[in-house]
Amino acid sequence: MDAFTGAAIAKLAFDEFVKSGAGEIAKKAVGGALEQLRSTIKARFKGKNQKAEAAIAKVEQEGSPEALNKLSVYLDDEMDDASFAQTLQQLAEQITNIQNTSERQYNNYGRDQITIENITGNPRIGGS
Predict the structure, then answer these.
(1) Of 28, 48, 117, 126, which residue is least crowded by CB atoms under 10 Å?
(2) What residues have CB less than 8 Å from 74, skipping those under 6 apart?
(3) What are the backbone angles phi and psi of residue 89, rounded to the nearest 5°?
(4) Percent of the chain with pLDDT over 70
């Protein structure tokens, strides 16, 4: 498993504020884990790093890519704490796994296939 960097974790946690193109289903599927990741990051900086707190607020309120980049730098510095880094990496991995399983691909194999939504006439499935 590749370790997530502070920048990758910040992007994962706050990128939906910067770009609104993420699907609603994906947001709902990872919502709880994503909120936990965000709250862990916010708690780490609360009362400790005003610049990081300001960057988080700016990302959430304005969707500022510049503020996200600044937050990434602050988070990279905090990743020196092994316990904190491990917690964030586990949450990021959980979110990534959820996102990957929600993007299933359905492949149809076999000779007898029918599109149920568009049945016309007298369809015969299989047999003679």
Answers:
(1) 117
(2) 6, 45, 49, 51, 52, 55
(3) -65, -35
(4) 63
What is the rounded distance in angstroms from the CA atom of residue 40 to the CA atom of residue 46? Answer: 10
Neighbours of 88 (CB within 10 A): 27
- Other CB atoms within a 10 A radius of the CB of residue 127 amount to 5
Buried (b) or exposed (e) across 55-81, using 16+ Cβ within 10 A? Answer: bbebbeeebbeebbebbbebbbebbee
Q: Can you give the three-state secondary structure of 57-78, one letter per residue?
A: HHHHHHCCHHHHHHHHHHHHHH
125, 114 contact by CB (below 8 A): yes
Rounded percentage of the chain residues whose pLDDT exceeds 90 = 34
Residue 83 DSSP SS3: helix
| pTM of the full structure | 0.66
